[in-house]
Amino acid sequence: MSTLTRPQSGPGLPVDLTGGRSTGRGARNILATVIIVCCFLLALVPLVWILWTVVSKGYSQLIDASWWNESQRGITTRNAGGGAYHAIVGSLITALCCAVISVPVGVMGAVYLVEYGGRGPIARAVSFMVDILTGVPSIVAALFVYALWVTLLGFERVGFAVSLSLVLLMVPTVLRLTEEVLRLVPNELREASFALGIPRWKTILRIVVPTAFSGIVTGVMLGLARIMGETAPLLILGPYTKGINLNPFSGNMAALPTMINQDRTESLQPAVDRTWAAALTLVLLVLLLNLIARAIARFSAVRK
Hints:
Layout: H1 22-62, H2 66-69, H3 85-117, H4 121-134, H5 138-152, H6 159-183, H7 187-195, H8 200-211, H9 213-228, H10 232-237, H11 256-263, H12 269-300
């Protein structure tokens, strides 16, 4: 008659608690790691390819000082020279006007949804509208602003109208990311503040928002990164000009996307070089904004 014996264990004899399956789990873990790494490298291929193409074809114009302090006024497609100063300034002014409107609306909307709205009908309506705006194409936002700004109100196509259309694209991004960051703030911080008799609005301003500030800045920068490269609103509401215009409420205003679009169909080499240089300038501008945002978030974070 056979009897079951328990495995012997001791200081020098470890007990196998995996039932002999450790080898199979290790193999599956290695296989999953290899697949993930391969997918990551595969995703990097188009990114590196695009960056290398833009840098290799556009850096020659950027090392010239005139690219940063001159416009394209008087420069034809056959002529080399000129710069992108007018387009860089126009892009920054348009993005600044958009951010001035979008950031307060997006942040305060997220604060309402997280701190005040709860599951009420107004909160559900706001969330529903934000979800709709998230999927709206840029050309639809531009046509809506065109119908309201130009057709109905009779105003001219100016840089501020472009900013209004970009607001419809930036607000959902800022609001959703800010909402997610605010939900990560521990409730214990709020409860401790309430226990000290501090009102809700002061708790939000002094505790919640500073704690989530780095995430809020990241959301703002992601929103700006999205709108900086939009072309449809610029084509419909902001006609391109080769001169410098610092007034977003009057006259045509240049931007880097419209500068790229202006010369993209040309086959002459000076125009082709300016197209690649403008594309590289736009990439560097977005990169610079993200670096500034990270620096602000890092030095403004709440110290533990």
